[in-house]
Amino acid sequence: MGAGIVQTMAQKGLAVTMKGRSNESLDRAMQRMNKGLNRLVEKGKMTADDLKQIIGRITVTTDYADIAQADLVIEAISEEMEVKKEILREIDGIVQPSAIFATNTSSLSITELASVTKRPEQVIGMHFFNPVPVMKLVEVIRGDATSSAPLRRPSRRPSRSVSSSARQPSE
Q1: Which one, out of 10, 11, 17, 48, has a CA that is 20 to 30 A from the CA of 156?
Q2: Using the 8-state DSSP alphabet, how is residue 158 labeled?
Q3: Residues whose CB falls within 8 Å of the CB of residue 117, separated by 6 or more in sequence, listed in order
Q4: 63 and 18 in contact (C-beta within 8 Å)?
């Protein structure tokens, strides 16, 4: 899922840093992206130069310090509350205070996840549908403390149908 989100953002012209657990997992993700993008080149849906530019927008890292200046952090790890909380706590102390945190979930409470950060008003849920580069829908979910600012449509947001929801997954 994470690689699909990264690919989609890079295809829309955004510089993206993809953080992985290991260099091996990052290599596999980049290979999957290259394979999918090469299919688009073969089908004439993009040029080889487009592919090169897309891949050029992606930086990979195993160190959270490399995302310290991010404006938006999209977390896409396993759908486990405690694991997500641990990651959000860790990045909360690293990423700039103005950054928006988005957690990719379809079933976990955004309010509970946001509560472990110092910025619960800047935490949203983003439920991407699979496969991310193909599906043109993302559900944006607010927590109890989420302000309206992270929900405003950024001028460079990838073109997607956005469904905004006040519901809390599993609540």
Answers
A1: 48
A2: P
A3: 88, 89, 92, 101, 123
A4: no
Q: How many Cα atoms are found within 13 Å in the side-chain-facing hemisphere of 102?
A: 20
Q: Judging by DSSP bridges, how do beta strands 123-128 and 100-103 pair with one another? A: parallel
CA dihedral 70, 74, 75, 81 (to 10 degrees): 120
Cβ burial, residue 8 (10 Å; 0-12/13-18/19+) = buried
The one-letter amino acid code at 105 reads T
Rounded Cα gap, residues 103 and 88, in angstroms? 9
pTM for this entry:
0.84
Residue 72: active-site member: no
- The residue written with tokens 């200046």 in the block is 69
Catalytic residue among 127, 139, 141, 169: 127
